[in-house]
Amino acid sequence: MRFMKYSTMNESVKAAVRRILDSYLEINNHRKTQERYAILDAVYSTKGHFSLEELGEKLATDYKFPVSRATLYNTLNLFMELRLVIRHRFHGSTKYEACYDNNSHSHQICTVCGKVTEIDSPEISEVIDNLHLKRFRKDGFTLYIYGICSICQAKLTRQKNLVKKEVKNDHKK
């Protein structure tokens, strides 16, 4: 589990997302519940990707505010509608991520171990920014690059070399 506190610079982002949620709830005559705001704060106090379970644990332990799985799920769906959270499906699991101040980013995903790493590529962002699409306004992008990480590559090479060595030894007998 990878939860780190953002710096105080993130407080302006938290205030902005709170205003977005406030406006939405007021315009649509929805209740402003403690749960929604606690979940929003926990999401924007988390660096990187998190699962529904990890967010629930964080709320229960760090905030002393246990929330049901259904409330988490429904609230995250609301946040996705408001473009405050993005959902990723990585290697058989669902992860979420705060996205208010970062609607465009890329991930590299190891197809062997499932490790996900965010990559910063100004070149990719520039190409997509300059991409002209007919009758479509771009708001952001997420790019997934699949491959094998260096750790898994090394393991596969060792296994391959072991097999070669065993075959060579079998031929000598």
Describe the structure concisely for a colleague.
The protein has about 170 residues and is of the alpha+beta class. It has helices spanning about 10-25, 35-45, 50-60, 70-80, 120-130, 150-170, and strands spanning about 85-90, 95-100, 105-110, 115-120, 140-145.
Q: Strands of the largest sheet, in order across it?
A: 4-3-5
Biggest beta sheet attributes: 3 strands, mixed
The span between the termini is 50 Å
Helix content: 40-55%
Write down the secondary-structure element order.
HHHHEEEEHEH
**Structural class by SSE content:** alpha+beta
Output mean pLDDT.
Answer: 88
Could you characterize the architecture of this molecule?
The protein is an alpha+beta fold. It contains 6 helices and 5 strands. The strands form 2 sheets. The chain has a 3-stranded mixed β-sheet with strand order 4-3-5, with no helix packed on it. A two-stranded antiparallel ribbon has the order 1-2. The longest helix has 23 residues, at 150-172. The model is unreliable at 1-9 (pLDDT under 50).
Tags for this model:
three-stranded mixed β-sheet, 173 residues, 6 helices, alpha+beta, two-stranded antiparallel ribbon, 5 strands, elongated, disordered N terminus
What is the secondary structure topology, with strand pairs?
Elements: H1 10-27, H2 34-43, H3 52-61, H4 69-81, E1 85-90, E2 93-98, E3 104-110, E4 116-119, H5 122-130, E5 141-147, H6 150-172
Parallel strand pairs: 3-5
Antiparallel strand pairs: 1-2, 3-4
Helix pairs in contact: 2-4
